[in-house]
Amino acid sequence: MNVPVKPKIVGHRGAAGLAIENTLAAVEIAARCGAQGIEIDAQVLGDGTVVVHHDAQLGRVMSGHLPLQQLTLPDLDKIHPLGLVASTHKERIPTLRDLLAHADAVGLAVNIEVKNDGHNPEWLARQVLSVLADWPRHDSALISSFDIELLAAIALLAPTWSLGWIVADLPSSWVETLKGIRATSLNLHEAAVTEAVVREAHTHGWLVQSWTVNEPDVAERLSGWGVDALITDYPDRLADRL
Ligand code: G3P
Ligand code: MG
């Protein structure tokens, strides 16, 4: 008899519904609320420093208005979350290196979503891989992106990394695309997931991870279809239900 496997609960942007997104504080809350992993967004500053932030520009979550490409590492000291008078080191834009160390400390797997805001894919791949080179947790990590050219560059430069392709709508060529980058995972918007897609992905040996799953009823349905991981702003809600 097949025993159904529960999907992993992955905190989206750390745990965006419970803390300031993509911060060390969000990582800690995700761990405390029953997540097994986190998804975080990586971007590159003008000096090549890889940081964890969703937007290409300041102003939505963090103070300021400049594009990240006009910032350098020391500038991070002057930026604080909007709505907070003062931030601690846990509530600021972290470097990718610091965030990975923090995830290690609390025992969470990491899905590093690399955003590409107009960079050359190979250059960006090299920047991110330079941070990951001395990080020993290949086994529990995934590099994901909407940008298939970036993933292809990583597949060439660092073939041992697990790669996930993020898509909102599944094109008819999805199987060929995933084969082309020797993917580990299809990271699909929850509205586009069907039982048939999950079954087909599994026949190829790919995981299916779905985002952003905040409703426990949706989580239960996707779990019943065999989705492997649920990326959520509210790991607490899903941990309570599943
Ligand atoms: O990793 C999937 C998801 O995070 C993609 O959307 O905009 O929240 O980074 P976004
Ligand atoms: Mg993301």
From TrEMBL:
Pfam families, alphabetized: GDPD (PF03009)
GO molecular function: phosphoric diester hydrolase activity
Occurrences of domain GP-PDE (ranges): 7-242
Gene Ontology biological-process entries: lipid metabolic process
Alphabetical list of InterPro entries matching this protein: GP_PDE_dom, PLC-like_Pdiesterase_TIM-brl
Protein name per UniProt: Cytoplasmic glycerophosphodiester phosphodiesterase
Provenance organism: Reinekea blandensis MED297
